[in-house]
Amino acid sequence: xxxxDVYKAAKVVKxxxxxTTVNEFTDQLPALRPKVLWEAxxxxxxxxxxNVDKIVTEEDKGAPLATLxxxxxxxxxxxxxxxxxxxGTHNEVRVKIDSEYFRGDLYLNGVLxxxxxxxxxxxxxxxxxxxxLIKAIRDAGGNVSxxxxxxxxVGNHGVERVLKETGVLV
Length: 170
Ligand SMILES: O=P(O)(O)OC[C@H]1O[C@H](OP(=O)(O)OP(=O)(O)O)[C@H](O)[C@@H]1O
Ligand SMILES: Nc1ncnc2[nH]cnc12
Known about the structure:
GO terms for molecular function: adenine phosphoribosyltransferase activity. One of its GO terms (biological process) is purine ribonucleoside salvage. Its EC number is 2.4.2.7. Helix 3 packs across helix 4. The chain is 34% helix and 29% strand. It is an alpha/beta fold. The chain binds 1-O-pyrophosphono-5-O-phosphono-alpha-D-ribofuranose and adenine.
């Protein structure tokens, strides 16, 4: 798989107290080749059912992947952000996020009551981002149908944490 080569070629840098694998897929360093994004997106589309109303991801590393999967499955895309729009028109919800690199507030717009949602992200580490997204979708009145990540940073038990805190299997 190309993605395995991408991670083998990646440099590991210290970022605060954490080690980050700076790589082509998640950081566009070196610039992201379309065939790498295609490979990852095809795997996601194969695994998921995408019998959903919306795809949701978190800014910004999940965005290229979620965008291509959205196009491939013809499913509208909502991206949760670290700031509010406060328009009063798109069912904005705010949740707390406690992930490996970021702690604060996360805002989701565009998921409506009754929506079935697939969450897509590039990486799961502690599971904090996914837990925040699942909570945001539920607070908006939506239902989480499936959650798919391409890469797991092992050792941080993210999959177990998400299952324990939300009942959702990544
Ligand atoms: O399982 P977790 O501990 O939550 O880590 C995974 C999250 O980390 C990365 O995002 P990051 O926080 O680097 O934000 P970014 O996508 O905006 O760069 C990645 O895109 C996931 O969303
Ligand atoms: N690209 C990445 N490398 C290492 N740890 C991470 N945690 C979240 N994204 C990561």
